[in-house]
Task: structure prediction
Amino acid sequence: MYHWWQIGTLYQVYPRSFQDSNGDGIGDLDGIRQRLDYLVWLGIDAIWISPIYPSPMHDFGYDVADYCGIDPVFGSLESFDRLIDEAHTKKLKVILDFVPNHTSIAHHWFIASRRSRTDPKRDWYIWRDPAQGGGPPNNWISNFGGSAWTWDKSTGQYYYHAYLAEQPDLNWRNRDMRAAMHEALRFWLRRGVDGFRVDVMWHLIKDAAFRDNPPDPTWTVHDPEIDRVFQTYSTDQPEVHEVIAGMRQVVEEFENRVLIGEIYLPVEKLVAYYGKNLMGAHLPFNFQLLSTPWAAPHIGALVERYEAVLPAGAWPNWVLSNHDRPRIAARVGPEQARVAVMLLLTLRGTPTLYYGDELGIGHVEIAPDVIRDPWAKREPGLGIGRDPSRTPMQWDGSAFAGFSMHDPWLPLTFDYQARNVAAMSIDETSILFLVRSLLHYRRQHTSLSHGEWRLLSRNSSILAYQRHHGDNRIIVVLNYTADQQAWFVNTATKVRVAISTHGDRRGEPVLSTLRLRANEGLLLEPA
Ligand code: GLC
Ligand code: CA
Result:
């Protein structure tokens, strides 16, 4: 038997940017609720909502001031309950973002912790004396640039923050803090959430001795500052697995819930996060497609490697974009974005689709004076800004794209009057139509939702693979180039085109040589 989180498709909602219901230019929970029917129409099974907890928004909600509340900008616990109820009625699961690595400086735990060295909450955070001779305790760097240590004058120690100084790291070696966090998880599980995406899961425990990180000799001033050093001692420590197992146990107290981990590690290290006896994360996010060069040989090799290192019984998953990385269409261009969604939705394992990728939203130019992302502000000129991936969902061609009645907090795309749900949902050649066809096809064919994956061929231009489950067998052929290609069909059974990335050719019989147009992907089924 398969679980919903294995055969379903996840959809990430960045709540500030999905739907504004009250005209303040910022998306909210009532807005998400108003758009659930769209997600049902599209063929989504579960939504993951980025943080909605009370927050001073230094990092747009990833600085949590209270783990058991809702920020007024997003709504209230009542609007949250209503959202869960309606989602469940429509057979949609709801996954929350849980941010256990750090809190906001405004969290009452931190306020107590920084009050005095003897406060019971002092040890809930990471406080250290200056290094011998003064200065920060070690050379660790914040992911947003600068030292990861901030001096606290009144108590005469530094506190550690892997991100902003406004996001002090919690000390997961402290048992009381752990218990409090487990209670926060239960708070939402009891309210009916179907699981969690755990923020920076590989960061949770740091080296007990706080050793210096080794420098990366290849670093240049054009790289983000964090890359000056390898994160050898600040992340991915062996003790983290016990912490994750603890969270998993809490999740296991409830039926049918899922634990997902945000983990940026190479696949060989990533798979350890499934945990001993698979009692870690159900789905350690596989982000390899975000950085692998976009060419058939690389993608083919990646899929083979990932399939090969997965522990027995571990369930795979794939991600194309998220709120921290360039959108897929920005990275590979609008034509290859179609090939990319066909890949995402036909590989083995749970796909996570990022809102707006179904419209093929590409790069959005953010003028310097409207930059919102704190990282972009701290390290300007490197092109690392995350705002271009967080712009409002585009629902129709009206003044603010149906997202809001007001100027949105980030701009729309220049082409939003054509690139929106209303226009594209009636255009059979749109990427939106393609995504919907793939999602519905996936639901109807067990070969796609849980069949085996087998490479058929990969050359410099084309990747071809087969999925099969029992009698159900389909073939996917993807052209990664802007040239026409031919592929020799080597199957005993006759096949025909089920879906083309271009929205046509449906039912076309396939002869011994399959012709692919530029940037075309084809899903073939038995004729
Ligand atoms: C994760 C989030 C990112 C955030 C960071 C700090 O990487 O996805 O948006 O800035 O954690 O919480
Ligand atoms: Ca709003």
